[in-house]
Structures are given as structure tokens and as C-alpha cells.
Specification:
- This protein is α/β, with parallel strands linked by helices and 257 residues long.
- It has 6 helices and 10 strands.
- It has a single domain, classed as Rossmann fold, CATH 3.40.50.
- Strands 3-2-5-8-9-1-10 form a 7-stranded parallel beta sheet.
- The radius of gyration is 17 Å and the shape is globular.
- The two termini are 30 Å apart.
- Bound molecules: the ligand O=C1O[C@H](COP(=O)(O)O)[C@@H](O)[C@H](O)[C@H]1O.
Length: 257
Amino acid sequence: MSVPTVITHRDADVLAKAVAARVIVRAVDAQSAKGSAHLVLTGGTVGIATLAEIAASPARDAVDWRKVDIWWGDERFLPSGDAERNETGARKALLDHLDLDPERVHVMRGPDSGMTAEESAEAYAEELRRAARPEDHGPAPSFDLMMLGMGPDGHIASLFPGLPALYDTRPVVAVHGSPKPPPTRISLTLPVVQGSREVWVIAAGEEKAGAVRLALSDSGTMQVPAAGARGRQRTLFLLDRAAASKIPSSLSRISSP
Ligand SMILES: O=C1O[C@H](COP(=O)(O)O)[C@@H](O)[C@H](O)[C@H]1O
């Protein structure tokens, strides 16, 4: 697993713009290397703001969006179209503005599919298995990029402190009793996070500063799930100054004005 690099930007607005630029470059690089790109989206404030900035960037046309697979790190188990679904936010901010191949937009299904949360998680696991190639050495693609938002409690995706999903070795799980509404969710698990080529934790705001500090320490993932957010080749913590305000000065950090 890679050692995190911390990059800070002035505020949440600059952060979203800077991350959007990085996502475009990452997708272009992955496509140049192997013809397609697997991107994992996150919900949350800064995650959706980043998607809106990708949509607003003229450089987005450098990506062949028909050859991008879109996945989600987690989903709130709500009917399709519900405003609280991560999918709904992502479609509005970005996906509806792109020429995507609908077969490559991999949605975690909600209760309107007729499935239980467990069945939906298993269906997503099957979709991941189908997309995985021998070189991925696992039950899911080795994503080119997994973006993760982070809560003030240190949760990533829908992996909340102390909940059994953190021990789960299946690629996707149903989560019940989430402390953040809604209580039922679907989430990728830590082995899939850590199988990704690149993992970027994106966080803004003073209320995230304590969790950022712990996520960069050797805290246990049961207490601080974000401490397990590490990619195989690269891990970035992309922060605004407020979220970075409690990081020890010994930690290497790159700051932009
Ligand atoms: O519920 C969720 O929250 C986190 C973080 O959200 P934020 O608004 O505090 O940035 C998000 O990463 C996750 O995907 C989402 O389901």
C-alpha cells in the first residue's frame, strides 16, 4: 500500500476545481495506457462539487467518456431519483452532461429494484466480478481512481466507525444502522478500496480536521475507517486549509496558494 501524500488548497472551492483537473488528467492517462478508465465516484459535499467542476471544465473533452466505467464507492439505499442518492447528485452535477455509455454506468440499486439491500450488494459484487480482469487479481477491477469523501467521524464510503462492514472481506456489503441518514446503505469494503491503483480522500472544512489527522496516523480502521484509505500505487489526501489544520508539521505536505 502506498504512503499518503497531502496536498492542500486555499478553500473548498479551489479544492474542487483542483481535484476536477486531476480527475481529467487521471482519466486521460489511464485511457492512453490501456484504452479505458475505471473511476469510482463519491457522494458528499466536496465530492459532488468536484463533479460539477469537471462538467464546467473545457478540458473534460480530452477524455473519451464513452470508454469510462463509472462506479460508486457507496450508495444510500433509497429509490432511484431520490435527491439523497449519491447517483442522483452525480447525474445532475456531471453524468447527465457527458456522452457516456449507459452500460458502463454501474449504479448500486435501491429498494425500487425489488431487491433487499443484501441482494443489491450481491448484485453489485457480481457486476464487479464481471468487470474484473485476470491482471486485477481479485473480485473487482483495480480501479484507476477511487475518490472518497470523508465524514467528521472518519467514515469513508459507507464504512462507519465500529460497524461490522469494516471487517467484511466481501467486495460489497449492505450497511444497516448508519449513524448518518439514511440508515441503510450499500458500500464497497476496505479490500476493494485498497485494491485500487489510486485512492484520493477529498475533504474540506474545519469539522474534518481531527479525522484527517487520525486518518494519516496509525489509527485502527475500526476507529477511523479513513486510516484504511490507501491505494496500491498512490494515495492522496486532497484538502482545504481548514481540513488540514491539525496535521502534524512533520508530515510532508504540498500547499498551493
Ligand atoms: O454519506 C456520505 O457522506 C460522505 C461524506 O460527505 P460530506 O458531505 O461530509 O462530504 C460521502 O463520502 C459518502 O459518499 C456519502 O454517502
